[in-house]
Fold this protein.
Amino acid sequence: MEIKTIYEDEDLLVVDKPARVIVFPEGNSTEKTLINYLMEKKPELGQAGQPPRFGVVHRLDKDTSGILLIAKTTEALIFFQKQFKNREVEKKYVCLVEGAIKEDSGSIKTLLARSPNDPRKQKVYLETDPHPDSAREAISEWKVLQRYQDFTLLEVKIKTGRRHQIRCHLSYLQHPIAGDKLYSFKNSKIPDGLKRQFLHSAHLKIQLPSGEIKEFKSDLTEELKNILAALQQQGEPRPKGAGK
């Protein structure tokens, strides 16, 4: 598997994660993972952190593509993870959601915890409602990039990094991510040709151990670009304010 390198120095490897590959093994999974592929070419990555995660700084879901950070030393791993924990990292995703979102931008702040009905999923809890002790604050901000006939393209900036945060939040707003098999609804529409969730890690800004602030960017995959091109042919995309 070819994995594109976005940036590399003595402390950090930044890659463009392909969809359909898990980042590191969890549970009883025997599937070959991204960190396995990377360590085949760069065995030194095994010196950071602890197996099976090694130097992986943050996670992306199996079917999410885009920017992923891997620390090359344990000291660098601790340095980067501290920034994630302190909400000092700027993270932006691009996703296609079902339906027409009328507002041009918005935010959602809730608690998230594992769903009692399906352990694979997260569940939204409001702070004013009864919730489990495991529930944690989750904040997502979104803005419309483009509107299509039955879908809306969003940029989502997450202030927190909870598991499935964007997927769960948008489903809660009744606009699940296109192609998301776990959080979509029974009659959800899926664009022709889309074989996975339309979610891509497009932008990340973080401080390096040297003190330098670096911004990393990743373009949509050809697969996702083709989906948008097909939607555009089906009907002229409407400008941002057209939903009002």
Summary: The longest helix spans residues 222-234. Helices lie at 34-41, 74-85, 165-172, 222-234. The beta strands are 4-8, 12-17, 65-71, 90-98, 105-114, 122-125, 136-147, 151-158, 199-207, 213-217. The radius of gyration is 18 Å.
